[in-house]
Amino acid sequence: MSKRTATHATFVIEREYPHPLAKVFAAFADPKSKAKWFVGPENWEKSNHQLDFRVGGKESVSGGPPGGTVHSYNGTIWDIVENERIVLAYDMHLDEQRISVSLATTEIKPTPTGAHLIYTEQGVYLDGYDDAGQREEGTQQLLSQLGAFLNT
Length: 152
Description:
Layout: E1 6-17, H1 21-29, H2 31-37, E2 45-46, E3 50-51, E4 58-64, E5 71-81, E6 85-94, E7 97-111, E8 114-126, H3 132-150
Antiparallel strand pairs: 1-8, 2-4, 3-4, 4-5, 5-6, 6-7, 7-8
């Protein structure tokens, strides 16, 4: 039997968006909007993004390189404060193998020129399949895609 491991880590990403709080929040809350920026690399095959944005609601999306490993995200929303905060817990899989479980908090605060987003993720990375550095890099990319979406 292979050795099992659980590595715990927390990371925080902060971004400034020159857009009103409501617009930034809506990019997370509106299923059609979130499906446009919450995606993997351009060349990946993609599944349909599903989002039931309410406390207790579910979110899922998957994708991967053509003919390769499928990366799956499945979340549950635990807390929503409109235009201020979203808390969700999610797990990630590579094909059928669970690779991590995370608690993610998105906070949105007003600034004189728009919105300050603070994303905090507390994760447990399982059996060496993933780590906080890789997850933070992927989340940085998603938040860049959010910025590009907001600018359209």
